[in-house]
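Comment on this:
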Amino acid sequence: MKTPRREDCVYTSCYCEENVWQLCSWFRSEAEVPLQEFQVLFISNHHRTVPLWKQRSGRGDFPVVWDYHVVLLWSGPGGPEPLVFDLDSVLDFPCSLREYSALALRSDKELNPQYHRMIRSIPADLFLQKFSSDRSHMKKPDGSWSMPPPAYPPIQTPETGSNLDLFIQMDQDQGLGRVHSLREFMIRVNLDHAPS
């Protein structure tokens, strides 16, 4: 499968949802495999406190605790094991889901329940059609940016100015796609040693 090099991807620090949208767009136009083989994964929980290891902004073996994080997953039928595309990770790009699970996600078993991860899985083509953000979540009360925004215009749909919160919240009956616990998701994608 043809994949972009990390250094050739559109990337803005702290805008993982837009980075993944741009990556989906690249695969839609450039990939040799159908976009239907890709899933966008929003990683969060009801407390919006999710630790991830092996992140660019991490220090040593300590995790970064995000309010949410977004990655792209490829799992082709009958192909090699699933691959994760995470532009914020120091792991390979792409990285096997098995390695990403072991090194970046690790297990919920040793974590306080408020840090247990949940995953909202959305078909990549649906994400491209429906995602919209006015970037207001990155504005401070005085109107300044907490982190500089991407140079390109905000990603918008005719239906709404921003629906990012629908993707981040982890209630099964709201938003697009399906919500799973970390373990349920790993079992669903058939990893033999799903983290607890």
In short: The domain at 8-188 is CATH 3.10.620.10 (C8orf32 fold).
